[in-house]
């Protein structure tokens, strides 16, 4: 069965007849969710044509048919867009990337962001480059084997990254949905197939979410992280597509100026800078000054002192 067929089958299985005003004929029903005939009826297409679409015998469809299927299956806007991509000719899809070269100006940009953690992602959320602030927030990506430098893989299989997220299940499910949306552009990518296969074998949640065929297009959001050094922070992330290299995306993590999370990031940046400077001098870094209730104490840019949040605050 084609990806189009798997997607349609998964979406009709997720809808009960009573959800769309149909009687639940048959007790018990032999199918989970809607029957093919019921989807065809709701979409105002022939049952034969819908069956051929789901079985992969037909791979294209008019906009009217796709709109009807989107209504019948209660697709989100992102899922509707995904359905359109699945029925477009392969010539409209992006060719597989042949390299993951990082231009020097792009690395300079990452480094110039200073205390703002930033990652450069390629196809399949491969980690291509990062700055010092990102390693302080997550981990030192340079010590990982190159084949393990993938953001989705780290979310599922790297405990140090997995434990950072306060709402790991939401973050991980959204990561799977974004990966599937991105995968539609390179359906025959062997590295993607290897990544998905590994994660399906090693993580039950990934396997279940991938089989659900959820898709999502997101370029911004907020995540709560429990960091071992600075406690709990709420960070806004943004994904910015680089115009010069279509396959590369810059992801930044920021917090509103003046917020406790913003000050915590500043503390983390200072700690990271001190650590790198000390490593160069081969001596131990100076500790944070003790603050009341066991909190870290730092200094704002205006010179005033700041006591950071306790872990879990």
Model description:
- The protein is an alpha+beta fold and 313 residues long.
- The chain contains 13 helices and 8 strands.
- The strands form 2 sheets. Strands 2-1-5-4-3 form a 5-stranded antiparallel beta sheet.
- α2 crosses α4 and α10 crosses α12.
- The longest helix has 22 residues.
- The N and C termini lie far apart (49 Å).
Short description:
With 313 residues, the protein is an alpha+beta fold. Helix content is 42%, strand content 13%.
Sequence of secondary-structure elements: HHHHHHEEHHHHHHEEEHEEE
Mean pLDDT rating = 84
Taking all Cα atoms into account, the compactness measure Rg is 24 Å
**Inertia-based shape:** elongated
Report the structural category: alpha+beta
User: Which bin fits the share of residues in helices?
Assistant: 40-55%
**Which segments are poorly predicted (pLDDT under 50) over 5 or more consecutive residues?**
280-313
Fraction of residues in β-strands: 5-15%
Query: What's the total number of strands?
Result: 8
Q: Strand order of the main beta sheet, please?
A: 2-1-5-4-3
For the report, how would you describe the main beta sheet?
5 strands, antiparallel
Gap between N and C termini, in Å? 49 Å
| Number of helical regions | 13
Write the layout of secondary structure elements.
Elements: H1 3-13, H2 36-43, H3 47-55, H4 63-72, H5 77-86, H6 104-112, E1 118-121, E2 127-130, H7 132-137, H8 151-157, H9 159-162, H10 168-183, H11 190-202, H12 204-211, E3 220-227, E4 231-241, E5 249-254, H13 260-281, E6 289-290, E7 296-299, E8 305-307
Antiparallel strand pairs: 1-2, 1-5, 3-4, 4-5, 6-7, 7-8
Helix pairs in contact: 2-3, 2-4, 4-5, 10-12, 11-12
């Amino acid at each position: 069965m084609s990806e189009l067929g798997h997607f349609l089958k998964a979406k009709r299985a997720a809808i009960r007849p009573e959800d769309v005003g149909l009687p639940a004929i048959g007790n018990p029903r032999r199918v989970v969710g809607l029957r093919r005939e019921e989807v065809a009826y709701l979409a105002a297409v022939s049952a034969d044509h819908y069956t051929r679409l789901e079985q992969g015998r037909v791979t294209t469809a008019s906009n009217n048919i796709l709109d009807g299927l989107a209504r019948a299956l209660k697709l989100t806007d992102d899922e509707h867009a995904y359905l359109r991509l699945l029925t477009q000719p392969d010539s409209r899809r992006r060719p597989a990337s042949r390299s993951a070269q990082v231009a020097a100006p792009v690395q300079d940009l990452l480094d110039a962001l200073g205390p703002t953690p930033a990652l450069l992602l390629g196809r399949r959320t491969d980690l291509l480059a990062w700055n010092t602030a990102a390693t302080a927030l997550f981990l030192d990506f340079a010590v990982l084997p190159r084949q393990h430098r993938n953001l989705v893989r780290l979310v599922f299989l790297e405990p140090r990254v997995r434990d950072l997220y306060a709402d790991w299940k939401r973050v991980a499910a959204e990561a799977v949905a974004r990966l599937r949306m991105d995968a539609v552009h390179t359906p025959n990518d062997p590295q993607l197939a290897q990544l998905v296969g590994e994660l399906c074998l090693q993580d039950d949640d990934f396997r279940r979410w991938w089989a659900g065929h959820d898709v999502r297009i997101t370029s911004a959001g907020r995540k709560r992280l429990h960091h071992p050094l600075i406690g709990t922070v709420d960070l806004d992330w943004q994904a910015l597509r680089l115009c010069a290299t279509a396959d590369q995306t810059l992801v930044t993590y920021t917090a509103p100026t003046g917020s406790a999370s913003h000050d915590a990031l500043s503390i983390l940046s200072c700690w990271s800078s001190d650590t790198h400077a000390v490593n160069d001098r081969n001596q131990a870094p100076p500790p944070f000054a003790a603050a009341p209730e066991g909190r870290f104490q730092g200094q704002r840019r205006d010179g005033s002192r700041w006591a950071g949040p306790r872990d879990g605050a």
